[in-house]
Amino acid sequence: MSQETQPSSSAPEPPGPAPGGRALPPLPGAERLAAELRALRRPGLAGLRTLRPEALIRVAVAAGLSGGFDDEAAGVETLLKAGVRHLGGRTLSADGTRGDPLARAAAHTFGLLPDWRGVSGQERRKAAAAVYGVTSERFRKSQEQEVIAELALAVLAVARAAITGPPPSGLPGLPGPSGPDSGGGGPVTRTPEPVPDPPTRLTGPPLSAAAVHRVTVHVASIELLRDIDILVSSENIYLEMSKTFRSTVSGSLRRAAAIRDEAGETVDDVLARELVEWMRAHGRSGLPVRPGTVVPTSPGALAERGVRRIHHAAVASPTSDGHGYRVDPHVLAEAVSASFRLARAERDSYDPPLSSLCFPLLGAGHGLPPEKAARWLCWAVHEELSRDPSWTVHLVAQRPELARLLTAASSAP
After folding, report:
1. pLDDT tens for each residue of 37-82
2. Which residue, among 313, 287, 289, 293, has the nearest Cα to 366 in the 3D structure?
3. Which residue among 3, 78, 102, 234 has its CA within the 20 to 30 Å range from the CA of 350?
């Protein structure tokens, strides 16, 4: 059977309660949505009226993006664009050349970018494959299936968010719903709990000027840094690393550390393999570890860049709906402390001894506003340096505005 064949039926998700006492409408399952997306891949947006994907239409209606037969196709199109945004494409450029790879590939796959509506399925697949630097055939067999599966989950999340909160907005170049009814009435919003500030040091010695100068902020992708002994990766509490095509810290380090043959094929997924071995050895296979746990692995191919250890900080806990993660700021601070503690324990096992660590902006984007994440991270680092100022610490962020937050938080008294 072709991978783009659409099944005739699939069991919908059962309805459930929504905030405010309203019942969630029954939504189709992710597998049914993925099957419809596979069927839609070849014709693209132009196929919405002829295929009439019933499951996607139901989700668009539930999300408030479609009100009836006349605007079903437009509603599904808006839903797909909102799904791309949910995949992490907030920085997606209008032409799809910059931003999260998964969002870019999804936008190309379905012709969601401006002036791509009439582009052939073959050309759209070729453009999506170029995001990952692979051939169209390899993309079809591998990454395309992940992109479609993730987009199916994303449109479900969009619908749930619209039911329990304000409707989603669009992307640059990917407009969302508009009109007089697009932002008011109906949905019940949930007020998020305020994120506390880190503690204020009232007593004890302040951080010395020498220790402050041992903190360096980089604007870079963490795997591109050189000659830093320990790189810290942000993981979920199941220690399941991100897919290698994701632009997350976890995905980037996993990709960079993999051992490859002369043809560029991965022969040893070092970091993921060693984490699986650690989980098995500690009786945690398929089970979560305590939030704040830090697990070390070897650096794999990153040893060529002078990296000697990777610390995997389990800071992200799944949300109650299972469609995202949340980071508690106290867990973030605990993970920083655990990483320093582990580094001290391993320091003298190396020649020369370990002396430097690098932390990404842990928690930003997972329930922690970037400014609060920066303040908690720098507070935790300062606490450790006040006890042991012999370490050199590097902080890294991919975007200049996030690096500026780290610089400001690191310089704060």
Report:
1. 999 999 988 888 788 888 898 888 888 887 655 567 888 988 998 8
2. 313
3. 234
Residue 36 contacts residue 83 (beta carbons within 8 Å): no
Give the count of domains, the chain: 2
Q: The pTM is what?
A: 0.57
- Based on the domain organization, do 86 and 214 belong to the same domain? no
Single-letter residue type at 83: G
DSSP reduced 3-state for 323 = coil
Residue 19: per-residue pLDDT: 42
- 3-state SS string over 61-117? HHCCCCCCHHHHHHHHHHHHHHHHHHCCCCCCCCCCCCCCHHHHHHHHHCCCCCCCC
β-pairing, 356-360 vs 215-219, is unpaired
Cβ-Cβ contacts under 8 Å for 247 (sequence gap 6 or more) = 88, 100, 101, 102, 398
Q: What are 40's two structure tokens?
A: 């839609």
Same domain for 74 and 140, yes or no, is yes
Contact 236, 363 (CB under 8 A): no
* Count of Cβ atoms closer than 10 Å to residue 285 Cβ: 11
Q: What are phi and psi of 271, to 5 degrees?
A: -65, -45
Helix (H) or strand (E) holding 319: none
Q: Which domain holds residue 147?
A: 19-164
CA distances from 38 to 28, 121, 152, 275, 348 (A): 15, 12, 10, 33, 54
Peptide bond into 205 cis (omega under 30): no
For residue 261, the domain's CATH number is: 3.40.220.10
Q: Would you give the DSSP letter of residue 53?
A: -
Based on the domain organization, do 24 and 156 belong to the same domain?
yes
